[in-house]
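tool=predict chain=A
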Amino acid sequence: MVNLTQPALLCFGSVPKEPSFRHHFLQVLAYLQAYKEAFASEKAFGVLSETLYELLQLGWEERQEEDSLLIERILLLVRNVLHVPADLDQEKRIDDDASVHDRLLWAIHLSGLDDLLLFLASSTAEHQWSLHVLEIISLIFRDQNPEQLAGVGQGRLAQERRTAVAELEVLRQREMAEKKTRALQRGNRHSRFGGSYIVQGLKSIGERDLIFHKGLHNLQNYTSDLGKQPRRVPKRRQAARELSVQRRSALNVRLFLRDFCSEFLENCYNRLMGSVKDHLLREKAQQHDETYYMWALAFFMAFNRAASFRPGLVSETLTVRTFHFIEQNLTNYYEMMLTDRKEATSWARRMHLALKAYQELLATVNEMNVSPDEAVRESSRIIQNNIFYVMEYRELFLALFRKFDERCQPRSFLRDLVETTHLFLKMLERFCRSRGNLMVQNKRKKRKKKKKVLDQSVASGNVPYSPEELESVWPSLAEQLQCCAQDPELSLDSMVPFDAASEVPVEEQRAEAMVRIQDCLLAGQAPQALTLLRSAREVWPEGDVFGSQDISPEEEIQLLKQIVWAPLPRQQGPEEQGAEEEDEEEVEEEELHVVEVLEKEFNFLDYLKRFANSTVIQAYVLLLRGYKQNSAHTNHCVVKMLHRLAYDLKMEALLFQLSLFCLFNRLLSDPAAGAYKELVTFARYILGKFFALAVVNQKAFVELLFWKNTAVVREMTEGYGSLDGG
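tool=predict ok
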């Protein structure tokens, strides 16, 4: 049964693209969904829980190898059945209705299997099943929201009621506006002769004014795009789709899950998370098992914060070491997403889990900061001091915004990133005010000069060797490359062909990657050169610069030969340029970059200036476009950041952009604009600043077409050429 219920994705590796294999995949998935419905029975889980209970009654000295194997198989079978995805089109369940997954959970509860899972999670003697138990628990709570789950059975909170009333008011205002518009459009008497009108000031295809053939009430809906075919977006440029769907289960299931969470936090959380972390650090777990750890951290810490906040229940994960662990994984996923383009969506999903865990850690520390217990507040201050001191924690959000890619990262990732950044900045600002002055770690690259003897052949041209020397070196290189090309164990993961931390975009680092390949070949490092070539081909497949995807080993060797002989452009320092004018052998100073760690006083506004970047602002504007679907808190986070840039830094000209102004126009003409008072106030403030500047600088209207950096903003406001004068 374990073999029959294996997840379809595990069998096929990924969703097949080839039609016949895709058909088999969907057929297997349909079988699994039928299995899941059949398993939603108290009798089936009753047999499993009774067998598991009898096996767990045996002490370690009485338990045979077959017994341990049977325990593992029962846990795997439960995991496989819970893992089957819901068929939303077939079920068509609404919130508060019992889906197949809910019926399965209720069968688990009635059979007593949930109590056995809690026992396995809390028992020190059964620590070898920690990862199995954590995976099952993550699948049980797959569709649940921890904050909503914590409030089940306690009556509707005042905050929830206010939110529901506000949402209904927005819908009512929109409905009233639509009714009013329809009433205005409906004439007293139908006429087939609506007439034609000339719209003055609006040009048609030629030089004449536009002729409008419909009724005047339709004029406000006119656009030049009417009747045109919508432009088809290529598949690889389409925005990423949301994969996780949250729904409200039936009330009895939610009550059972709430009690399970409370018991788990009371008796199991700290022990289980410590055991799982130990497995991960000792590499006893399977690949990517850390994602279950991060999910559990985010979910149960959020539940604890929303139910009755008790930091002691989650003390195992409330440490600086946990922050470091999450930050390391987040950075690793981020780099792998940029490198492994084929699996970029999977890496982005893991990155989202890590970001949620990081967000929940910050939220819990922030909650500790307002605790009535002085010891808890002191612990919060110590953790914050450690986080704000280390440079990597402060730079993390900037890197994530700079490399945000909506093709593989869904809108929910951007929403969580914006909310986490808002929370981090709020905590950092408050901490700076309470401390007066904050010393932080700062790293900089120090240039260290090293003397070396440089041959004229190196200083004089782009190719480090003469053609004769290359002819003599190539045969041995070719032999090494032929051996490496046949090696199936040559890994692509060991070498990254670009610098993820560089300010230069990844797309523009191709030339540097080519130079690195040439340097490896000239240094006699054939395996590294071949690995770099293949990695570069994965990152930059456009134009087949590094060879086509189906290139043969012989063609790869020929391509590497061309790279060896190619006169690639290399960046030269001033010393190297001076060296070209001197004798054949001379002493030149080579600059080496050494990272130097310093301490400096932290300035919050200087840190905020790092966010005054067009890439960051574009991400915020992208999220703001869905202001109707966003929660009130998400809209507040977006406006607060834009307000910081416009008001605190006096850089409102950064937001003078036509696409943002179109969004403001849509917002101000929205019938339900009264529900978005903060957004409306901010939009009017920015528009007022723009029209005040337009009186002085007529070119401001042209500047609307472009995203701007801080230098352009200064020229716009202080006068063109002011930078040259400075």
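DSSP finds 32 helices and four strands in the chain. The mean pLDDT is 82.
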